[in-house]
Design goal:
Layout (H helix, E strand, L loop, with lengths): L1 H25 L2 H18 L6 H21 L4 E8 L2 E8 L4
Antiparallel strand pairs: 1-2
Length: 99
């Protein structure tokens, strides 16, 4: 029960911004709804610990942006590869020339 209340508070604090970001990138409510669900499911799966409200907000923004990016490139002959260069993470976009 206490976990349910905690999840409800997370949605109250972050739900609108998650959906707004998703809708701006996806440009339709159906894909925005899917991204919104993906982000909340990712939260439920990993249950990250947040140091403060700013950290919580930044986590949700980053996860939403990543979910939007991945959804946009799926099915378009584009692959993403996470690379580590000098200890920093970068996404490399690889186009499939066969498409």
């Amino acid at each position: 029960m206490a976990e349910d209340k905690g999840f409800e508070k997370i949605i109250e604090r972050n739900g609108k911004s998650i959906y707004k970001i998703a809708f701006v990138y996806m440009k339709n409510r159906f894909d925005a709804d899917d991204v919104y669900q993906e982000v909340l499911l990712r939260y439920l799966k990993y249950r990250p610990h947040f140091e403060n409200c700013e950290h919580e907000k930044n986590w949700f923004v980053a996860v939403t942006m990543r979910a939007n990016l991945l959804r946009q490139v799926r099915g378009r002959g584009i692959m993403l590869r996470l690379m580590m260069i000098h200890g920093r993470r970068y996404l490399q976009i690889i186009r499939n020339r066969g498409r």
